[in-house]
Amino acid sequence: MIFLHFLGFEQAWAWDIPLRHGLRSVGVVVDKDDFKKYGTDNGTFFNSLVRRNRSLAHSIRNAERVRPWWMEGDYSYKIDKLRGNGWLLIGDALRFVDPVFSTGVDVASYSALYAFDSIEKVLGGGDEGVAFGEYELRINDGVDAWYEIIALFYKLQNLFTIFAVDRRFREKVVRILQGNIYIPESLQRAREIINMMNNAHDRIMAQPNSLLRRGAIAQYLSTHNGSRPSAKSPGSGDPSAEGALTTVEA
Ligand SMILES: Cc1cc2nc3c(=O)[nH]c(=O)nc-3n(C[C@H](O)[C@H](O)[C@H](O)COP(=O)(O)OP(=O)(O)OC[C@H]3O[C@@H](n4cnc5c(N)ncnc54)[C@H](O)[C@@H]3O)c2cc1C
Question: Which pTM does this prediction carry?
């Protein structure tokens, strides 16, 4: 079981992964600018983020750190060529994208599965160039879609959350996140949602008063003495509110 926690920043999240013998992998992902802004040491910054989420704070309240603090920059990469004469790349060897949706094992498992299919075709007398070419296209298309979904999550986390909880889109979003984006119908479903989210993003950015815009809710709270926007506030993020509905509609 993996736990993902939001931290109240618009581009931040924390992971909490139980390992073995009571050990847990816990870390935070945050925008570089937010990190720099605080200008504190890693431990103070980490603890200040943990305090922003009650369930995470509760979950690690008695935890003892067993490894030194470790900081990483963006570790996504992409290899252009996934095949050659007699070889195919699979898993981490071909690409790694931001881990927010736990795509590493999905890419590793399905690329292995489809590589196996391609090799089997070749061993059965099929053309290697064709079989390996199909493999490369399938995997690249699938992981590209993962990459775009993840990019949308970072571009506008509020928008992503709205899609994930809105009954009209929830099933599609969940099915994408379930994995195996490499079969044509899953890929098509993912592409539809990506297009809808991109369109919704453009519409939000065209509405200066939309509360779905980055920083808008914090600004709203500071100018309204901390009172929450009502469901009827235009663009409040509630799909039933008129302003937001037009924002989210496909
Ligand atoms: C801390 C951490 C947490 C993660 N959490 C998640 C998660 O929650 N969900 C998720 O989907 N992904 C997660 N990932 C990513 C995921 O683990 C990888 O994407 C996935 O394991 C890749 O599988 P792979 O088979 O391509 O490579 P690996 O799992 O790295 O397997 C490669 C294997 O090859 C072996 N090897 C290397 N060189 C040689 C050699 N010369 N000869 C023989 N063997 C060799 C290695 O020892 C290793 O066993 C996490 C990664 C890390 C580091």
Answer: 0.79
